[in-house]
C-alpha cells in the first residue's frame, strides 16, 4: 500500500505557538488520536512527569484514541504494559508500538524467512524484548550472545572466524553489551552473506537521562556498524521512512485529526511533519526551548508546551 502524506492540519507559522493549561484544551478538542512518545514525555526513568497520568485519564474520558510509539527497543510490548502499570497508567498492548515490535513488523511485511531469504534466521544485537517480538512474529532468532564469539584481537583470529550461514538479516537495537567482537561478526555477515539485510530499531544519537546527562543511543551503535559494513540499515523507528505509512495503514489514521507529542525534533516531530500531523513538543525531555526555536522552521513543532499536562488543561508543576 502506498500512503500519501496529508496536508498539514496546522500551517507552520514563523515560530511555534506556546501552549499552557488554558490554551492546551482548545487544541485537544480538535484531535481524535494522539500519538505519544514515552521517555521524556510521560516519564523519565522510573519517575512520571507531573500530571502525566491524570492527563491520559482526561483524554480517555473525552474519547480520544491514545497510541504510544517509542523508539526504545529495550522492552517488548508486554514488558511495556508492565512499565505503564508500574507508573499508574493503564495501557493495552494493542496501543503500544515499540521499535522492538516494528523491527519484527517490518521483516514480516517484506516476507523475510518466507518469500525473501526463505528459512533464514535473524542475527540480533539487542535486548530480550526485541528477541521476544521477533519470535512472536514467527521469525527465527540467533542472539549474538548465544554465538559465544571468541576474542577477535588479531588478524588471524578474524580470518578464522566462521559465519553462521543461516543468518539472513542483522537487527541492531539497544545493546548495552555491544562490543568489538559483535561489530566484527555483524559487519562480516552483512559484507559476506548473500542478500543479508540490516535493520535498525532507531537512529537516536543520544538519550537524556537527567541531571544534564546524555547517554549514547542506538544510533551510535548503528553508525559503527554502518561504517564497518558499508551497508545502510533500514530504520524502522521514528525518523525513518517506513514507520509512518505503517502506522497510517494499521490504525487508519486521519492526519488532520491526529497529533504527535514528543520531545525530539529529529524523530517525533519529524514523523509528524512527514505525515502532516499536528506536532507538539513538551519541554520535559531532550529538546530545550532554545533548541526548538533555533531549529530550521521546517523542523520546528507546531506547538511547544511545558509538559503533556498542559494539553489536558492541567498544571505542569
How does this model look, in words?
This protein has 317 residues and is an alpha/beta fold. The protein has two domains: 17-71 and 240-312, Rossmann fold (3-Layer(aba) Sandwich); 112-235, HAD superfamily/HAD-like (Rossmann fold, 3-Layer(aba) Sandwich), CATH 3.40.50.1000. 32% of the residues lie in helices and 19% in strands. The strands form four sheets. The protein has a seven-stranded parallel sheet with strand order 1-16-15-14-2-5-6, with helices on both faces. α5 links the parallel β7 and β8. The protein is elongated and about 65 Å long. It is an enzyme of class 3 (hydrolase). Mg(2+) binds at residues 37, 39, 263. It catalyses: 2-phosphoglycolate + H2O = glycolate + phosphate.
Please tag this protein with its features.
317 residues; elongated; Rossmann fold; alpha/beta; 16 strands; 2 domains; five-stranded parallel sheet; seven-stranded parallel sheet; HAD-SF_hydro_IIA
The helix fraction, in percent, is 25-40%
Number of domains: 2
Number of beta-strand segments: 16
> What is the CATH H-level superfamily of the largest domain?
HAD superfamily/HAD-like
What is the CATH architecture assignment of the largest domain?
3-Layer(aba) Sandwich
Oligomer: single chain
What's the overall geometry? Answer: elongated
Binding site for substrate: 238
Binding site for Mg(2+): 37, 39, 263
EC number: 3.1.3.18
Catalytic activity: 2-phosphoglycolate + H2O = glycolate + phosphate
Can you lay out the helices and strands and say which pair or pack?
Layout lengths: L16 E2 L5 H5 L4 E4 L6 E2 L2 E2 L3 H10 L3 E6 L6 H10 L9 E3 H11 L11 E5 L2 H9 L4 E3 L11 H6 L6 E6 L7 H13 L4 E4 L5 E5 L2 E4 L1 H12 L4 E2 L7 H9 L6 E4 L3 H11 L2 E5 L6 H6 L8 E3 L12
Helix pairs in contact: 4-5, 7-8
